[in-house]
Amino acid sequence: MLQAATMRLNQNTLLLGKKVVLVPYTPEHVPRYHEWMKSEELQRLTASEPLTLEQEYAMQRSWREDADKCTFIVLAAEKWQGQPGPSEENCMAGDVNLFLTDLGDPSLGEIEVMIAEPSCRGQGLGTEAVLMMMAYGVTKLGLTTFEAKIGQENEPSIRMFRRLHFEQVAVSSVFQEVTLRLTMSEPEQQWLLEQTSHVQEKPYRVGSSEPH
């Protein structure tokens, strides 16, 4: 149950960056998430099947309780900070996830990011979200190696992970995906912490979107 407790560690955590704010995935976020996942493009890029709204709520609950998954919703910081008390649903840009699925290696995390809101793409939100999630994985979860599995056609995502020092280690013609990996050596860890030195960790209060 130790790992389960670890993955629920983020349920009261808000991470404030320059471009993004990471918050736990709550029922408040489900309707917008559900609308995103009706997109055939996103279904293809995430290898997902469309769900009903009820199934999406059930999925949110299971993710919250999962022993091997850590999920943050990505909010656009500019929207979140630019209005008095905006609802988080109106600020949602995507999500970022860590999976601890290798039972033989608890220091390995598979990372994925989705910037689903079209108006939020191409602005570096995904890059900062991944950096913040990796720093969280290193400092809070004891991870030392990260992998990303990305569809071969998703060239922007592949380029982003390469810029973040990931190297391609495998190609699957069956799944039409590439696997990229980053091992956190001492210099890499120092680089990561420098890249995220501006990030503030704050207590998250469900239903509270106040930037203060």
Structure report:
The protein is α+β, with helices and mostly antiparallel strands and 212 residues long. The chain has nine helices and nine strands. Strands 7-8-6-5-4-3-2-1-9 form a nine-stranded mixed beta sheet, sandwiched between helices. The termini are far apart. 29% of the residues are buried.
The helix-strand sequence is HEEHHHEHHEEHEHEEHE
Shape: globular
**N-to-C span:** 34 Å
Largest beta-sheet characterization: 9 strands, mixed
**For the largest beta sheet, what order do the strands appear in spatially?**
7-8-6-5-4-3-2-1-9
Q: Which structural class fits the helix and strand makeup? A: alpha+beta
Summary of the model, kept short:
With 212 residues, the chain is an alpha+beta fold. It contains nine helices and nine strands.
Layout: helices, strands, pairs:
Blueprint: H1 2-7, E1 13-16, E2 20-24, H2 30-36, H3 40-46, H4 53-65, E3 69-76, H5 77-82, H6 88-91, E4 92-99, E5 108-115, H7 125-141, E6 145-151, H8 155-163, E7 167-172, E8 177-183, H9 186-195, E9 200-203
Parallel strand pairs: 5-6
Antiparallel strand pairs: 1-2, 1-9, 2-3, 3-4, 4-5, 6-8, 7-8
Features:
27% strand; 9 helices; disordered N terminus; alpha+beta; globular; single chain; 212 residues
